[in-house]
Amino acid sequence: MLPPKNKRRVLTLLAVVMSSLLVLVAVPSTAVAEAPPQTPSNLKVEPVESEDSGHVVFSDKPTLGAIATDPDGDALNYTFELLDEASGAVRTFTVEGVPSGQEAETSVTGRIRNPGVFKFRARASDEKDSSNWSAWKQFAVDAPLAPMGLTPQSITKRIDPENPVLSGVVSRPSGRPVTAKFFLYDEARNPIGPRPYGEGVASSSESPRVSMRLPDDVIKEGKTYRWQMQACVQWVCNETLVEQQFTVPVTPPTPTTRTVTLGKDKLSLATGKSAADACSGKACPLNPDTQVHIGGSGTEALISLLKVDMRSLPAGARIVSAKLHLGTPSCAPNCPGDGSVVAHQVRSSLPDNPTGHDLLTSSLPKPVGESPLHDAKIDLGGLANHWQNSPGTATGLALTAKNTPAPVTFGANDVPKEMSITLEYLPASAPGKVSKISARAGDCGALAVWAPPEDLGAHAPAHASPPAERKVVEDYELQVLDFYRNIVRTVRVKNLRTVVTGLHNAKSYKFRVRARSAYGVGEWTESNVFTPAAVPGGMQRYLDGMSQYVLSREGLLEGKYRDAEHAVKANPQGSAFRAALYTDAGHLLATRAYGAAGKAAQISTKVKPADTLVSYSPEEMTVTVRTTLHGTTVYSNGHGTLAEKRVTNKFTRTGDFTFALPASEKSGSSVGGQSSLVQFMAAIGADGHITGSERINAYTTEQAKQLQGLGSGQSFPLDSVGGEKTEAKKRATRLGPIDNYNIGIWAANNAPTEEHEYPQDCTNFISKAIHYGGGAKEIDGDRKSDEAWWQNRRVRVLWHKDSFTWAAVVNHHRHFNGQGRVYWEQSYNEVSVGDTMYWENKGKKILTHASIVSEVTGSDQYGIYYAQHNSPHHDTYKPLWQGLASGSYSKVGFAYVLW
């Protein structure tokens, strides 16, 4: 034990040591720096449309975001750097005073490339220090572009003075859906109606045109109006509102007509009793006759069939009106005061050896007309046009009596008034003048696009073969004139557009065109002067870029490429279409995965460009490749199994591939930099302002209330398999006179060649397939009525005048369903070739597309193929699963046509 003295010494020494240690520890503590902010994380870019789209935003002013924290809880300032991968340019955006741990957001201002591929990163700082930069986050821009191709414009006779159609093109680089908003004004720019007045959706770059028919009594003949269109994706709209004005034409006077009277010798008559049990408990035969017999009651009630021999009508005559005069009745002058003759259209062909009851049940319930017995006259409306269209298979007219208990006869000899039909018509003449033609100059060539004549001049020939070729205008004669009006080239063209090559750059030319028919040649219409010009740097790289882009998209669907970057690096011109491919690669890969989940696949694609023109615009700083792509795609269901089946689809795509040029490629300067594909636009988008449009897919609020989707029992789960073939379907296949299988065959065979009469031709095409392929009869009635279904019958062809049900999908569905003309398939096992397919949009729950089943190789969505017209494009055997993969459609109804 230490002595007390030593203890005190040790304790004193320890105290000194401890004190020194405390000093040593305390001094450095005052020199330690505060920790810097953490590196930002959770980088995001908005707005993004869906998970399938990947990091693709639909705004050219996207919002960038990031989150960082500060150890000391200080507020943070953020710096965002935005890198344009195509140019290497970097832009900087800052956000100040963001609380620690909260998200910092900044909106990109100014113009950025659309489409474009970008990266951004973020760094956070407080008053003392800065964090490290975050990793780069990549995204692509796919924003709506400014509208184009607005019609009507200026003063044109192709405006329907009753209900003008406003139409324009909206798009974005990916080709995915874009909404068009319409704004209507009077001549002084005072708004008319709500804002927007109406809106509709362009479903893709292959169907980019949006058209809205103005309601009744909104506009007046001879007045001038202005209208605007704006392109939007959800709440993001392009800032450009494109404006046009138009003057509504006054309805032209009816031309001078001629008259022909068809006597009883031109009428074919048959009579029978209409009751099902009139002859010993069975139906009585319908026997040929020389007179019309009607009246009677119960089992003695009579019915007559009247058919007209239209061959006395001059060839090509256009019927203006048709009236049936039954003449003096046998009851005259003491006919029942309230007795009348009732005429019904016969809806379908009668069976062999028909009965009177067959005639009754084959007649439409709504009468064509009704007239008192003592002066029986029936206005046939458009029925005579239908008989003129199909003289060999015309169904005729069923005649019955009302309030006439005793039989009455018409058509006896030696009566004061004989039976006859009076036809008022316009004689056939040469086609009218083509209303408009445009010219687009290219490198050593030009594109000509024109509208059909305002007056076709004649009725289509009735005995054409095949039926799809029943056309008045046989072709168009197009001439190229030089500066001195010498004819440089003459070509004959079936369609409304053509590319002429072999012209000289830097020389001026004009087009002129006229329509030709069996009844003569129309007047010439001339284009503006155009001057072909060389493309800076040559055409080949744009042609290569176009072809490589098309096959890269198909390669993503076919598994040739893992992702967009893989495709870009695998193609020499990949950098030119990198941004455009990035905008849609996510959806293409999602489609591939959708098919793979059901053992279905797109196997291979071959494409051959034709009628190609490359044009340079120094004003827009663009190069545009116009081409028609003819190709085939092989699809497989049961892929990789012993049950695999393959189907080859033939398709055609006509349109423009537009490349934006870097500033260094102005005409006359040295070539440098990299061009960039902006978008593909279907020809209807590029040319539609010339050819016009009336396929309606945009609506006012009130019009939209009339739209509808598929009803109860009109569809089945799309992800189902198999199912039973019901007794109802078995009965349906035995019931009607329609050749349903031939509907599908006709659709597949004629999709490549049948004329696209509307910019969005899907419903018009299926109506033709049902009529020409299946033999379904046209139904007369008011053009706007859902009970009618007929093709253009107007004398003055200043605009399309098909019935709404012929060319608009919602009206078509209402007609065929409402008139009982279809059986709705209840499972995939019931789906058959020739079925009509009605597609219901998922978001709006309305019908937006129609097609025809052309092949069935399996009892699920992966074994159904369809033919369609879509813009100026077509498919012969497109797989259902590819149509469903986008998620745009919630239901598809399959309808078997009965009559």
Short description:
The protein is of the alpha+beta class and 899 residues long. It has 14 helices and 48 strands.
Uncertain runs: 1-31, 464-468, 665-672, 794-800
Q: What oligomeric state do these chains adopt? A: single chain
**pLDDT averaged over residues:** 89
**How is the biggest beta sheet arranged?**
10 strands, antiparallel
CATH-level-4 superfamily name of the largest domain: endopeptidase domain like (from Nostoc punctiforme)
Structural class by SSE content: alpha+beta
User: Can you identify the CATH class of the largest domain?
Assistant: Alpha Beta
Bin the helical content. Answer: 10-25%
Kindly give the count of domains.
7
Shape: elongated
CATH fold name of the largest domain, please?
endopeptidase fold (from Nostoc punctiforme)
Into which percentage range does the β-strand content fall? Answer: 25-35%
Number of helices: 14
CATH architecture of the largest domain: Alpha-Beta Complex
Q: Report the count of strand segments.
A: 48
* Radius of gyration, CA atoms, in whole angstroms: 36 Å
Ends apart, CA distance between termini = 124 Å
